[in-house]
Amino acid sequence: MHTENLYQQLAGHYLKAIDAGTLRSGDRMPSLRVMMERHGVSLSTALNACRQLEQSGHLEARPRSGYFVRSLRRSGLAPSTEPSQQLPDPAQYVGIHERVSAIIAQGQQRPVAVNLAGACGAPALYPSEALKQGVLRALRQRPDLFGHAGPSTPNGEPAFRAAMARQALVSRIKLSPDEIIVTHGCIEALNLALRAVTQPGDVVAVESPTFFGLLQILESLGLKALEIPCSPQTGISLEALELAAHTYRDIKALVVVPNLQNPLGSTMPDANKAALVAWCAARQIPLIEDDTYSALSDSEAPQAALKAWDQDGNVIHCASLHKILAPGMRLGWIAAGRWQARVEMLKYAQSRSTEVLGQIAVADYLDSGAFERHLRRLRASLRSQREQVAEAVAHYFPAGTRLNLPNGGLALWVEMPGQRSSEALFHAALKEGIRIAPGLMFSNSNRFNAYLRISCGMPYTRELEHALRRLAALVAALPEQQA
Amino acid sequence: MHTENLYQQLAGHYLKAIDAGTLRSGDRMPSLRVMMERHGVSLSTALNACRQLEQSGHLEARPRSGYFVRSLRRSGLAPSTEPSQQLPDPAQYVGIHERVSAIIAQGQQRPVAVNLAGACGAPALYPSEALKQGVLRALRQRPDLFGHAGPSTPNGEPAFRAAMARQALVSRIKLSPDEIIVTHGCIEALNLALRAVTQPGDVVAVESPTFFGLLQILESLGLKALEIPCSPQTGISLEALELAAHTYRDIKALVVVPNLQNPLGSTMPDANKAALVAWCAARQIPLIEDDTYSALSDSEAPQAALKAWDQDGNVIHCASLHKILAPGMRLGWIAAGRWQARVEMLKYAQSRSTEVLGQIAVADYLDSGAFERHLRRLRASLRSQREQVAEAVAHYFPAGTRLNLPNGGLALWVEMPGQRSSEALFHAALKEGIRIAPGLMFSNSNRFNAYLRISCGMPYTRELEHALRRLAALVAALPEQQA
């Protein structure tokens, strides 16, 4: 796959300047006109380079002022390590559930003062009052709603499906509401997608690291995971995927979080997205995308979904309102391309239609225009919290800690120096009432034990700052395990 | 299995007298004292015989007056045919989804004036206002409920699980709330149960006929169905099951609806329930019970669940509030016995925790005591509607039509004379705006094509009577196909 375009070369040039300290935090970037003259490139190449650096969190666009180097750089934190190995480990059955559920259970047994383990926003970040009003309106409009079995069309309530189809346009996806099947959150959508295209024992390629929910789904379905190395900047490595496909000729599906990947926070450049969709289509490997986070991006331009490049129904698009609108509702959806009929069958057999009440309540809200205002507030809060947590990590954690500041989302992926063990950190922190998500939850291997995912969903309070400081001391006290 | 107890012999004696017309509709049964003297049996034997005939719909108990022969008999309708064949057809993969979904889709495409196809009550039969108040109360108590991900315990909201554990006591099941996992309706519970104990390609024994939802689940999971003949009176034939187990030594699970089976309306006698539970335990065949309907029984004494006899966790109990409280909510639960940990894992991986709002709203309602009053009203309405529909069938349908009047539930299972085709009837009726559920939806074979399931969930109006009369004329006009 040839993906290193001119704009990516240009972005790489400026990335080096930022990493070397030639361009510092707060510095204004050369104007697009200057870049065009200096490098002999077109306006769109200069613009795309800046947008990529914005996506990867290195630049920020200030209205009417141009691009500036983002503030994290002043702390001197190095960016996360790029994967050293391109050839994936052999595909293997997933055995992560016991480990993950033990970690979750231990975390729930102790009283936790500061929970940094989740990947969700604080309750106050979500529009509870508006959702409540939506519920009341729905019950006024349909007083006997609870007396009717199922929505008026089997795959979901028409108003909600229409609202989701409009929402998908933001990610550059054109869908008819008929193509949308409402699910119990993105988790059920991913289950249905994988059940539609695999049999137990099949090999499924996934990102490495990836969120443990996906690994648990693979485990529960008896599937083998082939973990493809990912760049903390640009997401799944297409080179590694190509290599893997030479070794494993029986990849039955690929699952990717293209925007604000969990836990990395990486966002795939558009060129990579296009190349990946074409690559999968050419090999007839179903491409399952989890687009849970893209509405949480700080970029000026909304992030495109992989489905935007789908020509022949080979991309199965899964999405959810869980992280962006209502963690307390399980409202997801799936557009399954050429597996639409099979997914409809599986959904009907697995859990029937999703409840109507939430769908109507939310459709009204999305149509009221208040949703966009909520999203703007949510993004701004998360961005501020993310930057403050990152600053604290930069300030308090031991030298050599590495971290990318993602361009949106709910968490930071922190790499501890000296191969310290996040499992040991998890237990030490729990004793002090602090819960983290240790890196070994995010892979079927132990490769990420020196990492932890820290939530940025909570308001940055004195208590949170204190917890981060305490956490940093615990990290410093852990033995280094480097050879 | 020796299951023909003394009380069953006695019940059989009186059943013959009813069928022969010696005892007629409205006749008072001999008193228990007379029965004891006449047959030389104990009080409990006489009482059990009457209770079994009450369960099978032949007698009704009138407070302080004793047992009476039920009114349907006056119409001269013969009871449904007992299965002639005991050895099941070979186990085979299920291929019913296309047939069923085509029937459902055709039914939905045409404007339907009278829908007799469902197995649900009319919206007015459910306590919409009380449920709405429950929702409002829940939102007042927890204003930021939609901002919180998941219930306060992973398997469901504690108040709801406690209410369900109390509810289970009615079916003589003793469970701790911790043993209850909340699901998206009984359908998800059955999925999880089957996924916990089978692999694709396994053989699962089911009742024949059975509800198409179960057959669709088997199909979607790649399981083979072994259809065990059922008596329209007493449910699954234990003799047939024994025979089947001799031929098929690899039965991996058995799914049974012990109370008010769908579509038969049969209820297993307690002796059969006990024998079945012991038989499965001895052979280590997981017994999955679907207890969706038992609260809709007219019997004086509540029906016991199979789980009531479970000694060693071999019974997986699945239940739901869908038919009895709120068709518009997807609130079910599962108590998975020795597969509890595996089902917890599968539920978490399949769809995460079920939404909280409905659980809190309903727990409050169940705890208010209004639930029992609602159930009494619901049972009385359904009974009256069921008897009126049965009378209309008896009156209008061609001679030779057979029908059991079940002792509760939402539908009647009608056998047309002369092997008429319910598929042909479905299409003819649809043209006239009447929807029925043809018998071939209820088996992977064509064995039940001469049957149809008629809903008794709707109020008995002039329009409904007219539709049944019209349906009867269509039945009469169908060609007989008897050899």
UniProtKB/TrEMBL annotation, chains A, B:
CDD domains xref list: AAT_like, WHTH_GntR
Any one GO MF term held by the record is:
DNA-binding transcription factor activity
Which keywords does the record carry? Answer: Aminotransferase, DNA-binding, Pyridoxal phosphate, Transcription, Transcription regulation, Transferase
Q: Which residues form the HTH gntR-type domain?
A: 4-72
**Gene3D superfamilies hit by this protein:** Aspartate Aminotransferase, domain 1, Type I PLP-dependent aspartate aminotransferase-like (Major domain), Winged helix-like DNA-binding domain superfamily/Winged helix DNA-binding domain
Q: Spell out the SMART domains in the cross-references.
A: HTH_GNTR
InterPro entries named in the record:
Aminotransferase_I/II_large, HTH_trans_reg/aminotransferase, PyrdxlP-dep_Trfase, PyrdxlP-dep_Trfase_major, PyrdxlP-dep_Trfase_small, Tscrpt_reg_HTH_GntR, WH-like_DNA-bd_sf, WH_DNA-bd_sf
Q: Which family does it belong to?
A: In the C-terminal section; belongs to the class-I pyridoxal-phosphate-dependent aminotransferase family.
What is the protein name for this chain?
A: Putative 8-amino-7-oxononanoate synthase
Q: What is the lineage of its organism?
A: Bacteria, Pseudomonadati, Pseudomonadota, Betaproteobacteria, Neisseriales
